[in-house]
Structures are given as C-alpha cells and as structure tokens.
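> example.struct
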C-alpha cells in the first residue's frame, strides 16, 4: 500500500468525495475515497454528521497512518416532515421521509457547493450517481467529475438493453421468460423479475434517466468491480456510456486491512464478538452465513417463519443476520427459535449489524445466502465462498443471473418476484426450497464442489486485481494519472490530453 508524502502540498492532487446516504452507497464510496488517499490524493469526504459517524474512526486511523484525508460536515436545515437527526435512508426510513431527506440533502449540497469548492479547492470530484446535479456544478468550476456507479456492469448492460429493445413488453404474462438482447450472453428473465420502473414509468425511472444522462456527461465512471469478474460487460458498458470507466474492486479488502477496520466498517463501532467464539467452535467450511444486506429483514412474518424453518431443516450450521424485528409475533417466533438453535449449537443470530467482512474471512464459513446486493456479491467472491442467491429488489435479479448462469458460482433459491424495497410483495419462498438450496451448496456433492472450485479461482483473480500491476490497481493509477494531467493542463495548456 502506498501513502502520500512524496509531493509538496502545492502539487498534491485534491479531491472531494460526495457519498450518498444509504449504507450500501456510503460504505463503498468511503472505501474508494480512502484508496485514493492511500495513493497520495488529498481527500475530503463531505457528508452529514450522522453519516460521518459511521466511518470517522477509519478515516482517523488512515490519517494517523499518513493518508491526507478528512471529513467535512454539512448540516441539514430544519424542514417540515423531516424528523430531527434523520440523515440516513434505510429500512426504518418511511418512503415520505426518504424523499424529503433526499430533496433536502440535494438542495443543501448544491447550494453549498460553491463555498465548498473555494474552501477545499478540489482538482476533481467523485460524486455518488444519485447527485446528478454535481456534473453541472463541476463543469461550472472547470473540474472533472467522476461518478460512482452502484451495481454490476452486467446489471447496467441488461437494464440498458431493456430500455432499448423492451423485450418484456412482448410477452403475455409475468412468468413468461424472454431474452434480453444485444448482450455478450443470452440472458433470460421473466417479467416478474425485472424492476417495476421498466413496466410502468415512475419517479425512480425519471431519477435514473437523470443519473444516466449525468454519467454520460461525466469525465468517467468508477465501479467496484474487477476485470475477471465481468470483463466483457465492462467493455460493453464503455460502449454504451462512451466515457472512461475505471474498476476499483474488490474495494473492501483493498482498503480494510486490519480487524478494527473490518469490524467497524459501515457501523462506526466494533460489534460484540459472541459470533467469533461461536464460529471458532465450528469445523472448517461447515457454516452458512445468511444476510440480506443493509436493508435486511425486508420480509413478512410468514416469510421470516419460513426462513427459520428452512435453516433448522437444512442440516447445516448457520449464522443468520436478523437485523431489527419490531415487537410482535415474528419477534417472539425468532426469539424462541434463537433459544432452540443456541441450545442445539446449530445456529447463531445477529440482531443488529454484522461485521460481515470478518465473518466472510472466518475459516468456518463455507457458503453464503445473499440477496445479491453488489457489495455482498463482490465481498463473497473475494472471500472465495459460493452462494445461494435470493434476490429481492433493485438490480439484484440481474446479479443473480451473472452469478448462477454466467459465472456459475451460485445456486438459486428460486425467487421469482421483484419487490420495491420496504415492500414485502406476495411471494413466499418456502422452507423446503430454502433448505434444499442450502444443502445443495453445503452438502459436498459434485455440483457443489465444481461451484466451489470456480469461486476459489475467481477469488484468486480478485486478489491479483488489487496487487501492484493488477487490473484494478492499474485502473486506479490511470485515473489518478489522468486527474494529474488534467490539473497540469489547466496550469499549462501545452500539456497533452490524458489518454484512457
Ligand atoms: N453489511 C455489513 N453488515 C450487515 C449488513 C451489511 O457489514 O449487517 C455491509 C456489507 O458488507 C456490504 C453492505 O453492507 O458492504 C451492504 O451492501 P449490499 O450491496 O450487499 O446490499 P444492500 O445494502 O444494498 O441491500
């Protein structure tokens, strides 16, 4: 790992980072900010105090190790409908509050941008995809904007094809499958698995249209992928966008090197370690880790009961990140379940935030049940673990196809219904399907061994990508070099244009 300190303060490349306020965007964008700082860029991360608290300890640790990195707080104004102290969009945030918060934050950042620009004098900005306004703000001040894009290239290529060819409008029913054309792979999906916005335009369709337009006008895009994971789709995506594209993944292991970094990531404080002694008592590769991302527990009581039974019936030891369950029947059921599996030593439940990176690297963990959120997918592949896929919302059904059909590193639980986050939908995945998929993954049969071999090979590639000379390493270095050249060019117009 490289640290700053070679260049004089005046020549140092300066950047400001604008992360979004959902955990699954905040966590990787902060990691990306940290890797830029570790490679000599002077970095200021701009966010609200509540969001900064989630990663401040990591930033402080990096600064004490020599990185030039800091956080700058922006305060949100009092606005009717926005409860005091609510600064994050997660499952506890109602839809109305989320939209007021988004609007308030956007206005605040946009209004303060000129002052932030004069205060920090950035040479470039890295903005989350949801701040589409920042492409114009950067242009106004004559600096390049890099956009952080969540999701896989694969999913963005598939969504672009849906917009372009509308194959889902040519089938008669929700469960009829159709081909998504124009991709390097013949991707088949059903109408019920694609996001609602492709069927009926809604406010999210318009938001995503603005995101895409702003991406096309950006200097370049950063995704936390790596070339061996989905190289042909990266190339396809570059053609769609017509801009420069940089891979910076797997970012989580590149940046979070020690136990403190890993434990506090996404949470701000270290998590109590009961899970560690429980895992230490288990045999190598015997435990399945079950987690549905930072928006976890997007399930009805009936579905929660089926998960509990499925886990009890699957015949394998498990950690289940339950998250937060409000009072009521489901909570009583899960508490009862917890007592039983604790007594039999079959399972361990985590009720809040799990230290996911540490759990994934524990030798006792042998597989993962995931909702296919992009962060978890990359972290799991990086850890060399096969998956049971159970997509729920966002672009997760596309990610499932990449994992199951293209890379063949996962088995599917058989979910069929795309849901809006925060909405339970109608589908119930039954206990038999859950237990069967886990047993297929963990049971040691030939199919499962093949899957394991493939994901281990991919994990090796992930590790190579971030080493000196690896594809993501070179990609990061290229982006930094291009930003330096643009800065020099501004100071001295005779300097040549950077090449991608
Ligand atoms: N995460 C974690 N502990 C939890 C839940 C999530 O550390 O209990 C982290 C996980 O490692 C990942 C991110 O939060 O980096 C979740 O992002 P993902 O894309 O997987 O899912 P989303 O939150 O978007 O549904």
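> example.seq
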């Amino acid at each position: 790992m490289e640290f700053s300190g070679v260049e004089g303060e005046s020549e140092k490349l300066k950047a400001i980072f604008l992360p979004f306020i959902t955990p699954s965007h905040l966590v990787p964008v902060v990691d990306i900010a940290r890797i830029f700082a570790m490679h000599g860029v002077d970095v200021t991360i701009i966010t609200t105090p509540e969001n900064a608290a989630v990663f401040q300890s990591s930033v402080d640790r990096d600064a004490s190790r020599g990185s030039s990195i800091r956080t700058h707080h922006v305060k949100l104004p009092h606005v009717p409908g926005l409860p005091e102290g609510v600064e994050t969009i997660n499952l506890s945030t109602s839809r109305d509050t989320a939209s007021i918060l988004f609007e308030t934050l956007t206005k605040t950042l946009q209004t303060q941008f000129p002052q932030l620009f004069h205060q920090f004098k950035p040479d470039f900005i890295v903005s989350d995809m949801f701040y589409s306004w920042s492409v114009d703000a950067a242009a106004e001040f004559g600096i390049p904007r890099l956009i952080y894009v969540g999701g896989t290239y694969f999913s963005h290529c598939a969504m672009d094809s849906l917009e372009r060819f509308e194959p889902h409008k040519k089938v008669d029913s929700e469960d009829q499958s159709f081909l998504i054309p124009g991709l390097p792979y013949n991707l088949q999906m059903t109408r019920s698995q694609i996001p609602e916005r492709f069927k009926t335009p809604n406010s999210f369709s318009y938001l995503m249209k603005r995101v895409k337009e702003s991406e096309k006008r950006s200097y370049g895009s950063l995704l936390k992928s790596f070339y061996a994971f989905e190289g042909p789709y990266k190339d396809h995506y570059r053609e769609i966008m017509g801009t420069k594209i940089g891979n910076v993944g797997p970012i989580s292991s590149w940046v979070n090197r020690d136990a403190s970094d890993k434990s506090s990531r996404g949470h701000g404080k270290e998590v109590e370690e009961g899970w560690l002694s429980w895992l230490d008592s288990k045999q190598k590769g015997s435990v399945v880790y079950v987690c549905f991302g930072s928006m976890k527990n997007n399930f009805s009581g009936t579905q929660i009961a089926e998960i509990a039974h499925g886990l009890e019936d699957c015949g394998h030891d498990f950690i289940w990140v339950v998250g937060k369950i409000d009072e009521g029947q489901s909570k009583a059921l899960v508490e009862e379940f917890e007592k039983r599996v604790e007594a039999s030593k079959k399972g361990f439940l985590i009720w809040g935030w799990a230290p996911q990176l540490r759990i994934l690297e524990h030798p006792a963990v042998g597989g993962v049940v995931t909702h296919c959120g992009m962060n978890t997918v990359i972290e799991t592949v990086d850890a060399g673990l096969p998956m049971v896929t159970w997509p729920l919302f966002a672009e997760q059904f596309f990610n499932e196809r990449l994992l199951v059909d293209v890379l063949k590193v996962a088995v599917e639980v058989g979910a069929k219904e795309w849901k809006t986050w925060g909405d339970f939908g109608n589908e119930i995945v039954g206990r038999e399907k859950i237990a069967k998929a886990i047993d297929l993954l963990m049971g040691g049969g030939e199919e499962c061994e093949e899957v394991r071999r493939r994901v281990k090979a991919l994990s090796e590639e992930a590790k190579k990508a971030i080493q000196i000379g690896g594809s993501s390493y070179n990609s990061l270095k290229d982006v930094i070099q291009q930003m330096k050249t643009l800065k020099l060019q501004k100071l001295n117009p005779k300097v040549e244009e950077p090449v991608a």
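> remarks
Residues 23-24, 27, 265-266, 291, 293-295, 321, 353-354, 356, 373-376, 379 surround uridine-5'-diphosphate (CB under 6 Å).
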